[in-house]
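>> received
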Amino acid sequence: MIFAELFLTFFIIGLFTIGGGYAMLSLIQTQVVTVHQWVDANTFTDIVAISQMTPGPIGINSATYIGYTVLEQSGAPYFLCILGSFTASVAVVLPSFLIVLGMCRMYSKLKKNTIFEGVMTGVKPAVVGLIGAAAILLVTPENFPDWKSWILFGAAFLISWVWKVNPIYTIIGGGVLGLILY
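>> returned
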């Protein structure tokens, strides 16, 4: 039953998310924290941080981690936890794969169509809104408990926005400063 729930949940997330992993985060959080209560908000933030640091798309990494965690928390053996990761990962990718496959076949016919161009123009700001919503959802008292956290946030924002510092260096710097400050 849990495999079907994982698959359906992440398939729907993958089906209704346009714009990649960051746009997907708010939907994932709503489903896994609020609707299914598979993880709490603090654990979800940890999942996002780990998914950000590991290679690969953040949405898929999150699905993989959550699929494993859900089965592990239910007391399932290791093999089933791995299968939970696989189930969630495949489910979140499958809709995009099928949609892109269909679009590739139709793109050459549609690229000059005004309706298609209008839809694509309207989708772009919606994606930016979803990414913004994901960022706002991560601003919780657990993530910003004191002034030091806000200073780290501001510094990370400035060095990535203004000076375009590589995100890997920003994450390493945040970890080192966290070790020193906390």
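>> The chain has eight helices and no strands.
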